[in-house]
Amino acid sequence: MTVRLQRFARRAGTGLALAFTLAGTPARAGTVVGPWTPIFKGIDYSVSTNVPGSGDFPRLQVVHAFRVDLTDPDIRLFTTPPLPDPIPGYQEVGGLTTSDFLSTHHLQVALSANFFGPGQYYQPPGSPMDVEGLLISEGVVVSTQDGSANSTAVLFDESNQATVIQQNWPVASLDGVWTAVSGNRALVAAGQNLESDPSSRDLDPRTAYGVSEDGRHLYLMGIDGRQPGYSNGANYYETAAWLLLLGAWDGVNMDGGGSTLLVMEDSTGVPVRLSKSSAVADSGNERTLGAHLGVYAKPVPGFINDVVAEPDDTTARITWTTVEPATTEVEYGTTLELGSTTGVLPELLSTHQVQITGLSPWTDYYFRAASASATERYVSPILRLFTTNYVTTNEIFAITNEWLYATPATVANGTAWTGLDYDDSDWGGPGPGLLWIDANYNPNVQPKGTEVPGDSSTGFPYITYYFRKHIALSHIDQGGLLNFAGYIDDGAVFYLNGEPIQTLRMPATWDATTLASGYACEGNATVDCVETFTVPMDGLQNLVEGENVLAVEVHNYNPRSPDMTFGLGLNRIEPLPRTARLEVGHDGTAVSLSWEAAGFTLQWADVPEGPWNDESNDPTSPYLVEPMESHRFYRLKH
After folding, report:
1. Is the distance from CB of 419 to CB of 549 less than 8 angstroms?
2. What is the CA radius of gyration of the chain?
3. What is the pLDDT of residues 86-102, one digit of tens each?
4. CB count, 10 Å around CB of 561?
5. Which end of the chain has fewer beta carbons closer than 10 Å to its terminal beta carbon, N or C?
6. Paired strand residues for 321
7. Could you give all domains of the chain from N- to C-terminal order, each with its CATH number?
């Protein structure tokens, strides 16, 4: 959990609740409207609930809502774009889950929009779908309005001015329309509930959009449902009543049911489900939807603002501003725990810049800016950067390559089976990946290469399976990486020449009876669930030129699990030779040294033969050198 979410959780978890009356709307006894908490600049979030059996809300309901300030200049709306070669009325868009829609387009919040077809909800990402009603994305008509059904439209121009049309048939003029979505019915108009049946038992999770009377705020609301004891869902009358309570003047019902889900981006770019989807509660998976609405926004302003990362292969420049002069520091690492720091630069500044060095290429890093004023220390949310790839990648073997395999009936406890000299002549195979066993035969686990045996005494797969493979390395490069990519269900331990080099979802100690501590991708190693990790060659003391043995043991999470999946590919990543040009210029009386490439260290010497010394304070380009009486020579070292 990141800093941003921790702060939000502390504020939202205080128990503070407000009961209030909107003008012209009777107070609902027992209804709790949650406070609006800023989560991004221009976007507030609220969680509301009610006391069942009171007022207009006799059933238990939990309501999640975003309030978007349409007048904020940094707010930008975005809907599902068309396929590259769409077929109108048949294949107009590529379906995505709400989380995938948010992460694919780097949005800050997202939820469902138009109804769509077909109704097969758990499909691979990008599956062609048809959108119902008018949908416009960044001025492009994705789906036309071709009848009176699903014709309640919300239109926005490029400056986010909103227009709600109760019945967009015949179709209103689309001149100047930049964004548009459509629902199946109007719920609220001119501050009045349009629904007449508060007793309807048509209860479902609901998604609804509303616009305030002055047009400033867009309300994006989801009512959770189909989860007794938590939230039962709402009928249309209740959905409209909730929109009115939140502040809507006009409102529209959108695609709900199992599609209802509000998602936000955490500070590291990872989608976080805020509401509780009935589809996830039922199946463990989000539905693949044909239409979404998302919002781009900037972080909430604070003491530290405008944090920007400019990564290179082994370095990254981090810049930010503070509202008053403060110190400069960056904390960073490959996990959310961070663990490393650039150290504190004590000079009090309002504009900050730090160069992080010694990073690994093609690697995710987490970081946060830290600045201390004269009275208090502040930190930004934890953010993420990805270093560039001045490397060459060569495949050692593919994920479909062959492995020897064995079960606990063949392998004794201990790690002798992981060594180079172990006799594996009585093992099964070699069989191509994926190696698998599945009583339920999940078709999304692909490619199925070799079926392995189960435990006949239990009727289930073994808790643990063992795999071995010989690999040959012609050379070992300093700074090189071994990059692993695999399908693993559920946990695993990886060995090289008898020594463990990586674990996935395993406790600190293990044997053949040890269960994995978790699982990936909601329990199945499906085609969209490739896990990757890298191991620096420099850190592998037992890696040798020539023959090596890679061994893996895969553990199930549950002794009655019906399946096990294993497939692994391996690449070697090696740095490419790099050069940089050192330019010399003048800045007043000083000499200016500049270079474009990152990842180089500026060095100096009194004579060309050396000795060479690193310039102090890890300078960045351009660097000013004050004139001196004697000569000095400079160079760049990578």
Report:
1. yes
2. 29
3. 999 889 999 999 999 99
4. 21
5. N
6. 305, 351
7. 3-85+97-128+187-296 (no CATH), 304-389 (2.60.40.10), 393-575 (2.60.120.260), 583-637 (no CATH)
